[in-house]
Amino acid sequence: MKLLLISDTHLPARARELPPQVWAEVAAADVVVHAGDWVEVALLDELEARSKRLIGVYGNNDGPDLRARLPEIARADLDGVRLAVIHETGAKQGREQRCDAQFPDTDVLVFGHSHIPWDTVTPSGLRLLNPGSPTDRRRQPYCTYQTAVVREGALVDVELHQLPRRG
């Protein structure tokens, strides 16, 4: 099962649309995960139409229209991998311990908010993933997203992808 992980798209505030490379990943993915800060509902509609399966949450920049359609925390079982998605996890210091306490029955937690890619494993074995942003690099050198594969009940082949800089 192929996964695409994105967050903090901020459309149309930070970009007019998702980059073509990300839309190609949407087409290839079995599951698209969006960790919030969509900003406008049009992208949610388009991802729902173009994704085989979409799991998403709202972020701090998402208004009532998105909050009416998306949860604060989403959970799913992906062929034995217990996934949770949330927009914010708080400061990086102490993140692993906070997430262990908040998500004890989770194998993988996807989050966003910082626009900073993140990939760590907590003391309890929880995998923490932040794909960064495919549209707003902030202080990062590149806009980013992640892909991964669920195989035999495990998350494997997690890869961070850098997008070409926009002119």
Automatic annotation (TrEMBL):
It is an enzyme of class 3 (hydrolase). Its cofactor is a divalent metal cation. Residues 1-147 form the Calcineurin-like phosphoesterase domain. Its EC number is 3.1.4.-. Keywords: Metal-binding. It comes from the Bacteria. Belongs to the metallophosphoesterase superfamily. YfcE family. NCBIfam families: yfcE. This is Phosphoesterase. It comes from Amycolatopsis plumensis.
